[in-house]
Amino acid sequence: MKRRTWIAGIATLAVATLALTGCSGGSGGGADAMQAHGPITVWYSNNAQELQWGKAMVASWNSTHPKEQIKGQEVPAGKTTEAVIGAAITAGTTPCLVFNNLPAATGQFQKQGGLVDLSKFPGANKYITDRSGASADQYKSSDGDFYQMPWKSNPVVIFYNKDLFTKAGLDPANPKLSTYTDFLATAKKLVSSGAAPYAIYPSPTSEFFQPNFDFLPLYAAETKGQSIIKDGKATINGQAGYDVANFWKTIYADNLAGKDPVQSDVFASGKAAMAIVGPWAIPVYKKVNWGSVPVPTKSGTSAENTWTFPDAKNIGMYTSCKNQGTAWDVVQFATSKAQDGDLLQVTGQMPIRPDLKSDYPDFFAKNPAYNLFASQTSRTVDDPNGPNAIATLQDLRNFYSKAVISGQGDLKSGLDQAAATMTAEWNRK
Amino acid sequence: MTRPGTHPDSGRDGERSQGELERGEVVGARHAPDSSIRTGGSKHPLHIRLFGRNPLGALFSAPYLVFVAIVFAYPLGFAVYMSFFDYFFTAPGAHVNRPFVGLANFVQVFTDPAVMQSFLNVLVFLVINVPLTVVLSIVLASALNSVVHARAFFSVSFYIPYVTASVAVIGVWLFLLNQNGLVNQLLGPLAPDPSWLINPVLAMPTIALFVTWKGLGFYILLFLAALQSVPGELYESAATDGAGKVRQFFSVSVPGVRPATVLVLLLATITGANLFTEPYLLTGGGGPNGASTSPVLLMYQQGIEQGHPGYAAAIGIVLVVFVLIIALLQNRFAGGRE
Amino acid sequence: MMGQPTAIPDQNGTNSAASRPVLRRKRKHRPANSLSRGQTLLRGVVLIIGAFVFLFPFYYMLIGSLQTSPDTTIAGAFPEPGNLTLANYAAINSRIGLLTGLVNSGIFTGGVLLGTVVFGVLAGYALAVLQWRGRDATFALVLLVQVVPFQLLMIPLYVLIARDYGLADNYLGMILPFAISSVAVLIFRQYFMQLPRELFDAARIDGASELRLLWGVALPLVRPALVTALLVTFIGPWNDFLWPFLITKETSMQPLAVSLANYISNVASSAANPFGAILAGACVLAAPVVVVFLFGQRYFISADLGSSVKG
Fold it and tell me: Where is the ABC transmembrane type-1 domain positioned along the sequence (chain B) (predicted)?
């Protein structure tokens, strides 16, 4: 009886399912859509500064394009952004443009058939490379085309709190932070002197994008710009990968960094004496007396030779867009020299342009704090671009969480294992 | 009208009332003869044999059934279908090769150490959460049921965590359980190191405690309703027999709420097996090193973040099968068999 | 699947008194024998500890939301005049359309409640009281629906509703997946089960129709179930943010939980006092639920199912 009840339930369900499973095809965009003009919807990021820029950009476009009005929405930002966009692609409910695309998600969105191949627009490749120079190359997909418009970056550097350095008896004008040995000694001093509970506090949680703010910037610096995936193989189990992992492992083992999930900004509240962030943080840290230096390397590298992670956000155009012609015009409008200048002015984030300092001399003269970031933009290496990029990064994070943050197991064999897993994941069909 | 108050057992050993007959069917096995009477058939006219005694029931349930078919059956069927393919969600009109892979996804589920760990984690969770939920909610519900003063205050305080969103309360718990949070400050030298949620051994038990705290109000509610339907006469006659309050609790209240207990057991198990929000928000995605990953969290990562919905569906189906097995076992051992 | 859900305590002899229905109706509402002093004390202590454990985090949330700067020490658990501010709330108000959010939440929740009560009562009644072919299968289905995690169904469901039904950015699309709560069906069934059979049999003999029975006899008796189901259902749509997030891209259609969850997880961290901002967001999200709950609670606390049946 009991069993019969269940079988009956499942059978009912199966019948209902069969009755309903009627797959429906859809319609794609195609060449017509690429020519079409008309109103479009865009999403921009929801932090205060980008919102200000986004609204101004939309208003400025709308005032001169009465027949091609843009409707701006805040992007569903946060942990769920990529999930929401992924689902929206499947349902065909994406907007025309998203000004917040994570480069690591591009491969997956592309495989889903969600992204428009921008290189198909006449003159697009030239426009992109003219604007972004060599930095654009890493945002090409495996077929050599651009499925994302390289837009802006936030090159990651080390911020330090000058007041806390002084309190710990360290020289705030010349912080010893360029080699691993110096960095560790400084960090120990900061904590042992009681100046701050933690020397630095990268988010220790397990989301796939967290390596971008601990492992990857240092790995980029140590390898002078190597990606974690090269020719379909993970590269992290070389000497550089070991050194970077070992550096962070020491930080955690000596309790120089917190292992609790961070909720509030620990750098702003003085709980951590250093932070590993990009220029977006400058307006946020108005109250902190901070300085910045490039990320450390094992034997020390001069600022003008240090590589880092760009923390870039790009513009994606989605295939559900009916008026792709307008959308492409808006992309060019929003990445014009004038709009890029506004973006820089309002958000402090770096448009992906090779000659920022000569393009916007006034800004950098008035805001010298941004100079370091501007010079870093040309030496950045982003997450690899492929359909399994997110899963591969998740594998890296799983390894890191276990072997580095918790310090379990042998680092060398852990790296080998992680590299094998990542290679397999990267090439997963 | 008969006096329902005297209902318990008055006619139990004599003739069975119609009502009991009907109820017997729900768990048939208990009253095997009943079901044979019902299915005996020849006694009833054709329309009863075809549609049952109250065909109206089907009509009453129809909206629900339609609803299930629309928002549940189709996606579930789709999930089952996906689990046999290397599936990939695509934009309307886009074409991607989605090969049939047979049982490969399922083989991977059973060989993936991360999946194994997540299932073990859920087991740890259930072992802590389910008994704690059942015991605490029954104790608090009976205390609440008998209290006269400040009853409203107590019930409100018990239900409030249940009615507020996880997003809202998780912030404050993170704050409390932090390395330097209030809980550790109070514990002083007894504070665990590493702290609660970042301790591989304590992360899952802490989540289990949090979920117990959060959900207890609902189960207290269920038990309270069940307790209120236990006729007062039973307590009185137990008292006449010289049973003290504690004895009454075990000999009248506990058996009296057994149906509710089975329901609570089942719901707590299901909720536990479908654990997602708490590890997602409390331990930042299943840390430390996977010690608090749940199968549903893995499904979310694989299916929604990483673009392997076929594999995610396979994990989900294995999970559903496990929960069904556990539910059946629970029913067998706690379901009121003599 | 479920255990025999009779309202009758089991008859396996553990409770010999049950076979002797000694009726002393005069003392119905009083405990048969009162608790000893020690037991009363123990009960009080249990309840007070319980209340403290349940309420303290909320108190702490409120305090934290009013602080100018976060204070994790034990002293931080007490209000300190110099460290109190409403700035955290002002920050939310300036960033989020609280009123639109509230209206959207109201529409979303109201739709769900309507569906759940009307169709849930019908289904619960059919499952508990009526005898019809397919009842067991339907009941199994109710349970099966519970067992399957929402994340397994989410994207197919989203595609179905957004693409095939075209209900993106539509209140109906928001409501549909929650339109009937299976938990509510279970609750209704559970309560209807506990009503004595004789009640229905007698009314049926009197010639009452099933609908009349349900409306006139059964429903008034399960008023606590109604309130319980309402409350249990209410919190679902009110608190859920993933689904409305997926289905509504229009900010003007987003329920409060979506905008506040967004505020808590993204915007708050750049506020002047991020922690206070997060907790203030949490308080705003929790407040309407707590208010509704405070109004609703007297129904299921005062409604004594046992006595109303005996009436």
Answer: 119-330
CB A253 within 8 A of CB A408: no
Residue B274 domain-assigned? Answer: yes
Give the per-residue pLDDT at A148.
Answer: 96
Which chains would you list as touching A if contact means 3+ CB atom pairs under 8 Å?
B, C
Average pLDDT value for residue range A367-394: 91
Residues 6+ positions from B313 with CB-CB distance below 8 Å: B79, B80, B82, B83, B87, B105, B299, B303, C152
Judge whether A85 and A105 are in contact, CB under 8 Å. yes
Measured between beta carbons, which residues in chain C are less than 8 angstroms from residue B18? 197, 201
Among A420, A396, A385, which Cα is nearest to A206's?
A396
CB A77 to CB C278 under 8 A?
no
Tokens of C284: 């705003």
Domain that holds residue B235: 104-334
A86: left (phi over 0), alpha (psi -120 to 50) or beta: alpha
The domain C98-258 is placed in CATH, from the list 1.10.1270.20, 3.90.420.10, 1.10.3720.10, 2.30.180.10, at: 1.10.3720.10
Contact B77 A205 (CB under 8 A): no
| pLDDT tens column, B21-63 | 333 333 333 333 333 334 444 556 666 666 666 778 888 889 9
Between C35 and A121, name the one with better pLDDT. A121
- What backbone torsions phi and psi does residue A44 show, to the nearest 5 degrees? -125, 165
Separation of alpha carbons B218 and B267, rounded Å? 10
User: What pLDDT score does A7 carry?
Assistant: 54
CB atoms within 10 A of CB B187: 10
How many distinct structural domains can be found in chain B? 1
Q: Please name the helix (run of DSSP H) or strand (run of DSSP E) that holds residue A172, with its range, or none.
A: none
From C200, which residue of chain B is nearest by alpha-carbon distance? B19
Q: What is the DSSP letter of A401?
A: I
Is the pLDDT assigned to residue A60 strictly greater than 90? yes
Chains that touch C (3 or more CB pairs under 8 A): A, B
Residue B2 has its nearest CB partner, among C163, C198, C234, at C198
Q: How far is the C-alpha of C141 from the C-alpha of C126, rounded, in Å?
A: 14
How large is the average pLDDT for residues C237-265?
A: 79
* Kind plus residue range of the DSSP H or E element containing B22: helix B18-24
* Of residues A21, A25, A205, nearest to B285 (C-beta): A205
Burial of A144 (0-12, 13-18, 19+ CB in 10 A): exposed
Average pLDDT over residues B158-178: 83
Cβ pair B93:A207 closer than 8 A: no
C305 closest CB neighbour out of B27, B172, B229: B229
Bridging pattern class, strands A70-74 and A40-44? parallel
Tokens 């027949």 map to which residue? A67
Three-state secondary-structure class, residue B16 = coil
Task: Confirm if B13 and C208 have CB atoms less than 8 A apart.
Answer: no
Quick one: which of B84, B127, B133 has its CA closest to B105?
B84
Residue with tokens 């695309």: A101
Report domain extents, chain C: 98-258
pTM, whole model, 2 decimals?
0.80
Cα torsion angle, A181, A185, A191, A192, sign: positive
Closest by Cα among B294, B319, B280 to B125: B294
Residues of B within 8 A of C150 (CB-CB) are 274
Domains, chain A, with CATH or none = 31-154+312-373 (3.40.190.10), 157-309+388-426 (3.40.190.10)
Lowest mean pLDDT among A147-151, B115-119, B299-303, C20-24: C20-24
Residue of C147, C156, C260 lying closest to B323 (CB–CB): C147
Residue B29 falls inside a structural domain: no
Domain holding B305: CATH number? 1.10.3720.10
Residue B63 lies in a domain: no
